[in-house]
Every structure is written in structure tokens, then in C-alpha cells.
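user: Kindly work through both lines:
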Amino acid sequence: MNAKPFYMERNVYDYIEKERKKIQENLKLKRQISQTRFSKIWLFPKIKNMNKKASIFDLAFIIIFAIGFALFLLIAGYVLLTINTQLKTTEIGTNPNSATALGWIDNIVSRFDYIFVILYIGLTIGLFISAFLIDSNQIFVPIYIILLALLVIISAVAQHLYQSFASVPEFMSRDIANPMMSYIMNHLIVSSIGIGVISMILIFAKPRNQGGPY
């Protein structure tokens, strides 16, 4: 059915308003189509490529976390136990409530080793899961290997830094008291290579589109 000319409309304003709304709806529809094309052509590939790098960046985070948290536990353990020992020789240590609190601190410090290992293993498992869920393309293997080599260098620096701290007489006893943490940090290079290689296998060795929607 043909539309009536504007001069046949009862109200010219109503006709103009209808046309304006039609133009707005058309512009809105075109804008939605453009945004959809933008997401498919530009945004999703960027996210996809970012996900391919996520695993290697996660490994970098684990290395930084390991050295930072390990040094923190060494220093915190030494400081807390030193203060605790001195307080126990004072009147504060003879108070039953204070003695309970001081014993609680000793108990917390004795669990530093388990806290470190649980967090380290948890982060590693999380990295493996994210690596498996990442969509893969074998063309990125050389880039991954180069980045992994750089991370191995960083882990070597971190391992040497920990060993330097652990060799200080004040911190040596804390290193001995945390055997699992000490083992991980003294083998940080090997563990970083192992985690990186397993992550690379999980990312690139699975069938294409196994791990993601893209």
C-alpha cells in the first residue's frame, strides 16, 4: 500500500516525527551491524592472539610470585621468630594469654613452607588449565619458544637471588626450616622450563579449536 503524501497527513508534524524515528531506527540498525562486524573482524582476533600469549605471561607471573613470596617468607620468618624469642624472655612471655599468642605466631611461621607450596602448585595447575583452554595455532610456536627462553633467563636470575639471600647467616635457618620452598627455589630454572614445555604442549599439540570458541 502506497504511503500518503505529506500534504495528506492530518498533521505535518506527525509525518516529520515518523520520518525522524525511521531514520533513527535505520541508523541504530547500521550501528549495530558495524559493531558486530568490528567485533568479528578486529576484536575477537585480538582477544584470540592475546589468549595465545596468556600462558607465557602466566608463567612469568609464577616466577615473579615465587621469588617475591619466597624472599618475603624468609625475611618475615626471621623477623617474627626473632621478636618472638625476645618477647618470651620478658614479662610478656610469662603471661598466659601472651604466651598463647606467641605460640600462635610460632605455629604460623612453621606453616610458611606449606603455604608457599600450595600457592605455587595452585598457580601452576591454573596455568595448565588456561593453557588447555586457549585456542592454538602452530605458527606461534617460535614466538612462544623465544619468550620461554627469556623467562628461563629471568628464572635463573631469580634462583641466584634466592640463593644469595638464603646463604646469609640470618636467613639460612629459615631456608633449612622450609625444605619444600627451598627445593623449588633452588630448582626454579628446571621447574620453569618444565612448566613452560608442558604449557606449550597443552596449547599447540591439541586439535585446533579444542580449547576455545574462536
Notes: Helices lie at 12-88, 91-94, 96-110, 112-133, 141-166, 169-177, 179-186, 188-204.
